[in-house]
Amino acid sequence: GIHTACMAGSWMSVVYGFAGFEDYGGEYSFNPHLPKEWKKLSFSLAIRGALLDVTLSQNEAVYSLKEGSELELSHRNEKFVLKAGEKKSFSLKKKLAAVLFDLDGVVTNTAPLHFAAWKKMADEEGLRFDEDMNKKLLGISREASLEVILKENGAEWSAEKKSAWCVKKNEIYKKSLETLGEKDILPGIKKLLEDLKAHGIKAALASSSKNAPMILERLGISEYFCAIADAAKVQKAKPEPDLFLEAAEKCGVWYADCVGVEDAESGVSAIKKAGMKSVGIETTVTLPNADLRLSSTAELTYEKLASLMED
Ligand code: B16
Ligand code: MG
Fold first, then answer.
1. How far is the CA of 139 from the centre of ligand 1 (A)?
2. Which ligand ends up closest to the CA of 262?
3. CA distance readout (Å), 23 to 44, 72, 74, 230
4. What ligand is nearest to the CA atom of residue 205?
5. What is the spatial distance between Cα 215 and Cα 237, in angstroms, rounded to a whole number?
6. Ligand 2 centroid from CA 110, angstroms
7. What's the rounded Cα separation, in Å, for the pair 97 and 129?
8. pLDDT tens per residue across span 153-171
């Protein structure tokens, strides 16, 4: 005998899982991920009176309309229409399409300025705050940074006091940004941005800082960035992947074709959760989970980033 429910379950895990088929309110899409050992997967789907053939290999996805006059589909983030008898193929080979940069510790070093502003608060409030504690604030939001400082001191503040100090700390910090200029771009970054542009690779910013657009302006490099993820709007801060996913989406680039560059553990986790390759700049802390670990931004090159896509 045969177990039809079990057969249906296997079919669903292959089509919904490995082929990444989704029916989202009548919008049909595919996001294929074949296991490395699989050479080929092909199946047919009857959709709204049309018959669609799907053939997937490690390097290519092919969609052909066998019956029916027209069908609208999406392959990953790309919409397309198949007319009667038409066939369309997409490469599944990973390619570097965008580099998503963290800001503090990757593009420029604002950590000492954040430190000075928090230190002013700590001194006024009689809290302990030192360089070691400052390392724990790398890449995390203003509000989360304050929570860390309070926890380290065993202090409990009212919500009003916390938000008043977040505003005040930011005013102190912004004042210190007034002298920021091209001289403050970290080594190798300007050259990398130029090389990426020359190779047609997009650059975007995925920073936790709500001051990011102003900082890029001051550094004089805004024109190189096709998008800045909005730290004030994303649902969840690093180590969640939201900032990196938003940066990729704003650039119109598929997430798996992006490399993220970070100097903080929370940032490397965010990149990995986003399903992207990660580069860790280990100037302040070690980043053992990064796919590529570099000791300085000066070591960042287009070639190293592109080769990350090869494995
Ligand atoms: P703001 P990144 C982070 O920058 C800093 O590393 C972190 O210390 C700071 O709290 C955070 O930005 C928020 O900055 O107060 O300007 O919104 O590394 O994510 O670029
Ligand atoms: Mg950083």
1. 5
2. 2
3. 15, 12, 10, 29
4. 1
5. 19
6. 9
7. 41
8. 999 999 999 999 999 999 9
